[in-house]
Design brief:
This is WD repeat-containing protein 89 homolog. Keywords: Repeat, WD repeat. The two termini are about 30 Å apart. The protein has three helices and 30 strands. With about 375 residues, the chain is mainly beta.
Length: about 375
């Protein structure tokens, strides 16, 4: 069991955080892939390389239940639209997007790509919030999630795996797709959707795209992480590049005293203003929140938060609780959760909250699948 460690906040003032819960699962070589919250934060869902999704309380860590049914790697999970708060969706390399009722942990619907191709990502949106878009092998698929009918298939805009699809937060009729082919495409999804009429713009990043996200007060800015660990910042409305950090790992490594930054997990946007943090990690499991200065003298600054001592391998997912409804009082001072290739979930807690020195291990957290296969982090899927 790991002892309590500290995370130091260097800016804007000194704060200390502790490792509240260090849970060594009985994964063996299996991974924690992704951690996502329910809208009201009563649950967090955790996708596993055992092809299962498990749910826990984000405050207590208590196990709530398990969703099982996929026959291949789960590539993304997300809770559904606000009108169906109990529905959790997951997409998989088995070619399906499945919906689960998190009250019963039973599958309630399944949408199939129809051609047995892998599905790497999905997003809910559309002008009437009725669309479910998915990224597959060189295709973007659309369903009407209310009846499960496929309504469109875009197959001319990308030539390789579509790793990301996102409806734009403040422009719900706009969809962004990103691919291993190095392109990001913006589509208009109003009316009948097709490649010829609805492709509005194309951004050429130049290398395989792993993860993208929107930020800024009007969500007009776009960050893009690639599989060679570079970062670029864009204005998606006019396809303008605002910053390129081709050597992002070296820049981040030079700004802290720990080991070399080996990879990036994600970017963090706090939900207001235009500040952005790049979350980088070491193969030994340490994490840093690096502020990104993409205006003027472009730079990646010294980490404003460091999470060390919780993980012993590559971290796959970071769930900050800064956006939790009710704020610190409801979260009981929890900074967030992390999960990774060491099969471990870590909960980070502020030092002035109760329970900092209490650690526990749950043997019931995850059951190992003897046939689970290990995935390399830098694969697109």
């Amino acid at each position: 069991m790991e002892g309590t460690t500290e995370m130091e906040i260097e800016k804007p003032k000194s704060k200390k955080f502790g490792l509240k819960n260090s849970i060594q699962t009985n994964f063996g070589n299996d991974y924690v892939f992704q951690i996502v919250p329910k809208d009201d934060w009563s649950s967090v869902a955790v996708s596993l390389s055992t092809k299962a999704v498990k749910l826990y309380s984000p405050v207590t860590g208590q196990f709530q239940g398990e969703c099982k049914g996929h026959s291949d790697t789960i590539n993304q999970i997300a809770f559904s639209v606000s009108s169906s708060p109990h529905l959790l969706h997951s997409c998989s390399s088995d070619g399906t997007i499945r919906a689960w009722d998190t009250r019963t942990f039973q599958q309630v619907s399944c949408m199939d790509s129809g051609s047995s191709q892998e599905i790497f990502s999905f997003s809910f949106g559309g002008s009437n919030d009725n669309l479910l878009a998915a990224g597959a092998k060189s295709q973007v698929l659309f369903w009407d999630w209310r009846n499960g009918k496929q309504v469109a298939c875009l197959e001319e805009s990308h030539t390789e795996d579509v790793t990301q699809v996102h409806f734009v937060p403040d422009n719900r009729n706009k969809l962004l797709s990103a691919s291993v082919d190095g392109l990001m495409c913006i589509f208009n999804t109003d009316g009948d959707i097709n490649d010829d009429d609805d492709l509005e713009s194309v951004i050429n990043v130049g290398t395989s795209i792993g993860k993208v996200g929107f930020f800024g007060d009007t969500y007009q800015k776009l960050w893009c992480l690639t599989y060679i660990e570079s970062l670029s910042i864009w204005d998606w409305k006019d396809s303008r590049n605002e910053a390129n950090f081709l050597e992002a790992r070296s820049l981040a490594s030079d700004s802290w005293t720990l080991d070399h930054v080996d990879y990036f997990v994600d970017c963090h946007y706090a939900g207001e203003g235009d500040s952005l943090w790049l979350i980088g990690g070491t193969n030994a499991g340490a994490l840093g929140y690096f502020p990104v200065n993409y205006k003027g003298a472009r730079a990646i600054g010294s980490p404003e938060a460091i999470l060390g001592g919780g993980h012993t391998g590559v971290v796959r997912s970071v769930l900050p609780m800064s956006s939790m409804k009710g704020g610190p009082a409801q979260s009981r001072g929890i900074f967030g959760w992390t999960g990774g290739e060491d099969g471990r979930l870590c909960c980070w807690l502020s030092d002035d909250a109760t329970g900092t020195n209490q650690s526990w291990i749950s043997s019931a957290l995850v059951m190992k699948s003897p046939k689970a296969r290990k995935k390399k982090r830098r694969n697109p899927y």
